[in-house]
Amino acid sequence: MKIMKRPNILLTGTPGVGKTTLGKELAQRTGLAYVNVGDLAQEGQLFDGFDEEYQCPVLDEDRVVDELEDKMGDGGVIVDYHGCDFFPERWFQIVFVLRTDNTNLYSRLEGRGYTGKKLQDNVQCEIFQTIYEEAMEAYKEEIVHQLPSNEPEDLDRNLEQIVQWVEQWMKDNN
Ligand code: DAT
Protein backbone atom coordinates (compact mmCIF):
# COMPACT_ATOMS: atom_id res chain seq x y z
CA MET A 1 0.00 0.00 0.00
CA LYS A 2 1.28 3.41 -0.92
CA ILE A 3 1.24 5.92 1.91
CA MET A 4 -0.45 9.25 1.08
CA LYS A 5 1.90 12.21 1.07
CA ARG A 6 0.83 14.95 3.47
CA PRO A 7 2.15 18.51 3.88
CA ASN A 8 3.86 20.09 6.87
CA ILE A 9 2.44 23.44 7.97
CA LEU A 10 4.11 26.08 10.14
CA LEU A 11 1.92 28.32 12.30
CA THR A 12 3.95 31.20 13.66
CA GLY A 13 3.50 34.69 15.10
CA THR A 14 3.84 36.64 18.35
CA PRO A 15 2.69 34.87 21.53
CA GLY A 16 -1.07 35.30 21.97
CA VAL A 17 -2.05 35.64 18.30
CA GLY A 18 -3.95 32.34 18.32
CA LYS A 19 -1.57 29.71 16.95
CA THR A 20 -2.53 27.01 19.46
CA THR A 21 -6.25 27.62 19.05
CA LEU A 22 -5.99 27.38 15.26
CA GLY A 23 -3.46 24.53 15.25
CA LYS A 24 -5.43 22.17 17.48
CA GLU A 25 -8.68 22.75 15.60
CA LEU A 26 -6.91 22.36 12.27
CA ALA A 27 -5.42 19.05 13.41
CA GLN A 28 -8.89 17.79 14.33
CA ARG A 29 -10.34 18.76 10.98
CA THR A 30 -7.50 17.51 8.78
CA GLY A 31 -6.18 14.54 10.73
CA LEU A 32 -2.70 16.07 10.62
CA ALA A 33 -0.55 15.89 13.78
CA TYR A 34 -0.18 18.99 15.95
CA VAL A 35 3.16 19.82 17.58
CA ASN A 36 3.53 22.69 20.05
CA VAL A 37 7.27 23.36 20.17
CA GLY A 38 7.05 25.02 23.59
CA ASP A 39 5.36 21.95 25.06
CA LEU A 40 7.77 19.61 23.28
CA ALA A 41 10.73 21.47 24.78
CA GLN A 42 9.15 21.39 28.22
CA GLU A 43 8.49 17.65 28.06
CA GLY A 44 11.97 16.78 26.79
CA GLN A 45 13.73 19.57 28.71
CA LEU A 46 15.18 20.77 25.40
CA PHE A 47 16.68 23.87 26.96
CA ASP A 48 20.11 25.40 26.95
CA GLY A 49 20.59 27.91 29.76
CA PHE A 50 18.29 30.40 31.45
CA ASP A 51 17.28 33.90 30.35
CA GLU A 52 17.63 36.12 33.42
CA GLU A 53 15.89 39.08 31.81
CA TYR A 54 12.72 37.17 30.94
CA GLN A 55 13.06 34.59 33.70
CA CYS A 56 12.55 31.65 31.37
CA PRO A 57 14.63 28.77 30.02
CA VAL A 58 16.28 29.24 26.60
CA LEU A 59 15.19 26.85 23.85
CA ASP A 60 17.87 24.47 22.61
CA GLU A 61 17.04 24.91 18.94
CA ASP A 62 19.40 22.19 17.67
CA ARG A 63 17.90 19.59 19.95
CA VAL A 64 14.37 20.63 18.96
CA VAL A 65 15.29 20.15 15.30
CA ASP A 66 16.90 16.75 16.01
CA GLU A 67 13.87 15.68 18.01
CA LEU A 68 11.44 16.55 15.21
CA GLU A 69 13.49 15.56 12.14
CA ASP A 70 12.08 12.04 11.56
CA LYS A 71 8.48 13.08 12.14
CA MET A 72 8.81 16.04 9.77
CA GLY A 73 10.32 13.79 7.13
CA ASP A 74 7.15 11.67 7.18
CA GLY A 75 4.98 14.77 6.58
CA GLY A 76 1.57 15.66 7.92
CA VAL A 77 2.66 17.83 10.83
CA ILE A 78 1.36 21.21 12.00
CA VAL A 79 4.11 23.01 13.95
CA ASP A 80 3.25 25.86 16.35
CA TYR A 81 5.97 28.22 17.58
CA HIS A 82 6.57 31.95 18.10
CA GLY A 83 9.77 31.83 16.09
CA CYS A 84 10.61 30.27 12.76
CA ASP A 85 14.17 30.91 11.59
CA PHE A 86 15.84 27.85 13.12
CA PHE A 87 13.71 25.18 11.47
CA PRO A 88 15.11 23.69 8.24
CA GLU A 89 13.45 25.51 5.34
CA ARG A 90 12.75 22.20 3.57
CA TRP A 91 10.42 21.07 6.37
CA PHE A 92 7.47 23.27 5.41
CA GLN A 93 5.28 23.46 2.34
CA ILE A 94 3.43 26.51 3.70
CA VAL A 95 3.93 29.07 6.48
CA PHE A 96 1.17 31.07 8.16
CA VAL A 97 1.97 34.14 10.25
CA LEU A 98 -1.01 35.00 12.45
CA ARG A 99 -1.56 38.72 13.10
CA THR A 100 -3.53 40.43 15.87
CA ASP A 101 -4.26 44.14 16.44
CA ASN A 102 -2.31 45.71 19.32
CA THR A 103 -5.19 46.41 21.64
CA ASN A 104 -6.56 42.90 21.19
CA LEU A 105 -3.19 41.30 21.75
CA TYR A 106 -2.53 43.47 24.79
CA SER A 107 -5.66 42.27 26.55
CA ARG A 108 -5.05 38.64 25.58
CA LEU A 109 -1.53 38.72 27.01
CA GLU A 110 -2.67 40.59 30.11
CA GLY A 111 -5.29 37.89 30.56
CA ARG A 112 -2.52 35.34 30.36
CA GLY A 113 -0.79 37.06 33.26
CA TYR A 114 1.91 38.90 31.32
CA THR A 115 2.95 42.22 32.90
CA GLY A 116 5.61 44.90 32.60
CA LYS A 117 8.47 44.40 30.17
CA LYS A 118 7.30 40.98 29.00
CA LEU A 119 3.90 42.40 28.05
CA GLN A 120 5.40 45.51 26.39
CA ASP A 121 8.00 43.55 24.43
CA ASN A 122 5.51 41.07 23.07
CA VAL A 123 3.09 43.78 21.94
CA GLN A 124 6.03 45.62 20.37
CA CYS A 125 7.08 42.40 18.60
CA GLU A 126 3.66 42.41 16.93
CA ILE A 127 3.75 46.16 16.12
CA PHE A 128 7.15 45.78 14.44
CA GLN A 129 5.93 42.63 12.63
CA THR A 130 9.10 40.91 13.78
CA ILE A 131 7.93 37.36 13.16
CA TYR A 132 6.51 38.16 9.74
CA GLU A 133 9.86 39.57 8.69
CA GLU A 134 11.65 36.58 10.19
CA ALA A 135 9.41 34.25 8.17
CA MET A 136 9.93 36.22 4.94
CA GLU A 137 13.70 35.92 5.43
CA ALA A 138 13.67 32.24 6.31
CA TYR A 139 11.23 30.89 3.68
CA LYS A 140 10.35 31.57 0.05
CA GLU A 141 8.09 34.61 0.10
CA GLU A 142 5.42 32.86 -1.95
CA ILE A 143 4.79 30.24 0.74
CA VAL A 144 4.46 32.81 3.57
CA HIS A 145 0.93 34.06 4.27
CA GLN A 146 -0.37 36.46 6.91
CA LEU A 147 -3.69 35.61 8.56
CA PRO A 148 -5.75 38.12 10.59
CA SER A 149 -6.56 36.63 14.00
CA ASN A 150 -8.69 39.14 15.89
CA GLU A 151 -12.11 37.61 16.29
CA PRO A 152 -13.87 34.24 16.11
CA GLU A 153 -14.90 34.90 12.48
CA ASP A 154 -11.21 35.12 11.59
CA LEU A 155 -10.61 31.73 13.17
CA ASP A 156 -13.44 30.18 11.15
CA ARG A 157 -12.23 31.68 7.91
CA ASN A 158 -8.61 30.69 8.53
CA LEU A 159 -9.67 27.13 9.30
CA GLU A 160 -11.73 26.87 6.13
CA GLN A 161 -8.96 28.27 3.96
CA ILE A 162 -6.27 26.00 5.35
CA VAL A 163 -8.45 22.88 5.24
CA GLN A 164 -9.08 23.65 1.56
CA TRP A 165 -5.39 24.20 0.93
CA VAL A 166 -4.55 20.84 2.54
CA GLU A 167 -7.15 19.03 0.42
CA GLN A 168 -5.81 20.61 -2.75
CA TRP A 169 -2.20 19.83 -1.80
CA MET A 170 -3.09 16.18 -1.22
CA LYS A 171 -4.75 15.95 -4.64
CA ASP A 172 -1.81 17.60 -6.36
CA ASN A 173 0.82 15.46 -4.65
CA ASN A 174 -0.67 11.97 -4.55
P1 DAT B 1 -0.82 31.47 20.82
O1 DAT B 1 -0.80 29.97 20.69
O2 DAT B 1 -0.46 32.16 19.55
O3 DAT B 1 -0.03 31.98 21.99
P2 DAT B 1 -3.57 31.09 21.71
O4 DAT B 1 -4.12 30.14 20.70
O5 DAT B 1 -3.18 30.53 23.03
O6 DAT B 1 -2.34 31.91 21.09
O7 DAT B 1 -4.65 32.25 21.88
C1 DAT B 1 -4.49 33.31 22.81
C2 DAT B 1 -5.84 33.77 23.29
O8 DAT B 1 -6.54 34.39 22.25
C3 DAT B 1 -6.73 32.63 23.79
O9 DAT B 1 -7.43 33.13 24.92
C4 DAT B 1 -7.70 32.39 22.66
C5 DAT B 1 -7.79 33.74 22.00
N1 DAT B 1 -7.99 33.67 20.54
C6 DAT B 1 -7.27 32.95 19.66
N2 DAT B 1 -7.69 33.14 18.40
C7 DAT B 1 -8.71 34.02 18.48
C8 DAT B 1 -9.59 34.63 17.52
N3 DAT B 1 -9.50 34.39 16.20
N4 DAT B 1 -10.53 35.47 17.97
C9 DAT B 1 -10.65 35.74 19.29
N5 DAT B 1 -9.86 35.21 20.26
C10 DAT B 1 -8.90 34.36 19.85
UniProtKB/TrEMBL annotation:
InterPro entries linked: Adenyl_kinase_AK6, P-loop_NTPase
Keywords annotated in UniProt: ATP-binding, Cytoplasm, Kinase, Nucleotide-binding, Nucleus, Ribosome biogenesis, rRNA processing, Transferase
Compartment list: Cytoplasm; Nucleus, Nucleoplasm; Nucleus, Cajal body
Gene Ontology biological-process annotations: ribosomal small subunit biogenesis; rRNA processing
Keyword ATP-binding recorded: yes
Swiss-Prot/TrEMBL catalytic activity: AMP + ATP = 2 ADP; ATP + H2O = ADP + phosphate + H(+)
A Pfam family that the UniProt record links to this protein: AAA_18
EC number: 2.7.4.3
Transmembrane segments: none
Region (NMPbind): 36-59
Keyword DNA-binding included in the entry's annotation: no
Residue numbers spanned by region LID: 111-121
A GO CC annotation given for this chain: cytoplasm
Entry similarity comment: Belongs to the adenylate kinase family. AK6 subfamily.
PANTHER family membership: ADENYLATE KINASE ISOENZYME 6, POS9-ACTIVATING FACTOR FAP7-RELATED
Assembly description: Monomer and homodimer. Interacts with small ribosomal subunit protein uS11. Not a structural component of 43S pre-ribosomes, but transiently interacts with them by binding to uS11. Interacts with COIL (via C-terminus).
Role noted for this protein: Broad-specificity nucleoside monophosphate (NMP) kinase that catalyzes the reversible transfer of the terminal phosphate group between nucleoside triphosphates and monophosphates. Has also ATPase activity. Involved in the late cytoplasmic maturation steps of the 40S ribosomal particles, specifically 18S rRNA maturation. While NMP activity is not required for ribosome maturation, ATPase activity is. Associates transiently with small ribosomal subunit protein uS11. ATP hydrolysis breaks the interaction with uS11.
Name recorded for this polypeptide: Adenylate kinase isoenzyme 6
Organism: Umbra pygmaea
Organism lineage: Eukaryota, Metazoa, Chordata, Craniata, Vertebrata
